[in-house]
Amino acid sequence: MLMLVFISICTQILGLWITLKPSGYNVPLTSNPESVAASTTILIYFIFATIILYIFLKYVKEPMFMRIIEAAAILVTSSVTFYFMEIPWQLSFLLVLARLSSQSIWILNFSMIFCVAGAGAMLGKSLGVIPCLILLLVVMVYDYVSVRKTGHMVEMAERLTSIGNMFMFVVPKERGENIHLGAGDVGLPLAFIISSSSISILVALITLIAGNVGLFFILYKLDERPLPALPILGLAIILGFLIGMIIEGFL
After folding, report:
1. DSSP of 57-83, one letter per residue?
2. CA-to-CA distance for 79 and 57, rounded, in angstroms?
3. pLDDT: is 226 or 130 the higher one?
4. What is the pTM of this model?
């Protein structure tokens, strides 16, 4: 349990660092990150990607297709992380090869750290605080509905787990079981943390701490029933953000 929190903190600190350093990532994917329309654009991309992923998981039984998609995602996003860490971005190819050749959960976690750090940096720099907050709120609602009501997110997660724990962090539990945490449950909070760093680094750090306190609470309360993580994570992050704003004197 604590290992997942540790992995989440490491991933988010890495993603935040590569955007804060003087030569860090600062290439927004939207034309105007402060515009509410930016969150709409990202949300459309999210919906489209979710539909495509669901179709692949439901109707394409050959796991190699999903392995190719995951490999491409790791290659693109980890290369961003490596490049702005100022180490050879070509190392992302080795990361992909390691992931494709081994089902070790530690290689999986290692690759996901660099993957999610890069993806979070790209998203966080593409959205201002308000657009990112809007996106977070919408996805929080979606996560609750898709887990508790329609169940299709649970179906997708089970399929991803069965073909190699794709797009998730995994740590061993007792009796040979594992605890799983979706990459988006770390990446989307990271995006908001990075976005909030435009106000101050202290606000971003308090937001990061609050989000991982929320993650600890989720893992502590985890039972056999699938739990939508983002609603609780989102509330913790928003609370941390407000506390940071008050401490900094913005509220």
Report:
1. HHH---HHHHHHHHHHHHHHHHHHHHH
2. 26
3. 130
4. 0.94
